[in-house]
Amino acid sequence: MNARNATEFLPSTRTIVILLFCLAVGIRLLAIAATFKGNDKVLYWEDVSIGRNLVRGNGYSLDTEWRTRMVYGNLVQDIEKKIQDPVIGGARPTTLKQPVFPFLIAAVFYVFGSGNFLALFLVHSVIAGLTAVTFFLTFRSHSTLIGLVFSLGFAFYPPFIYSCVQFLCL
Question: Can you name the residues that pair with 43 across neighbouring β-strands?
């Protein structure tokens, strides 16, 4: 049996799209249920700092503590301990990060509340479901089977699942 004959037994494109979306989102929801221990247990990176500052009205800025750690922390270990009287308050404008992800974080925090990581992880899961569907629709022009393989590969690839459902949950 060749690939053309195998695709005859596949359901319609609409059914495949719906199933792929539900599968990709469902896997990530299971991962959220297994790893999420509360908003206060999430360690976050500079993207969240920028997103929170956007929601607070501080513009596209990075908290001074994060800025010190990002810029100088790579050069000097334990930089916070070696600076006498460090400035840890406030925020400064930054161009160190690309803007799309911090703006997404700001939008989610604006709608669902600042620091609501569960909502952010759910939005990530929906975006992952849409990505799996996009893979299928893009590659099905070559073959429905190829589109299915690529989209299922994306849906089940552990690093994609992991990156979608947490920053660092302790």
Answer: 168
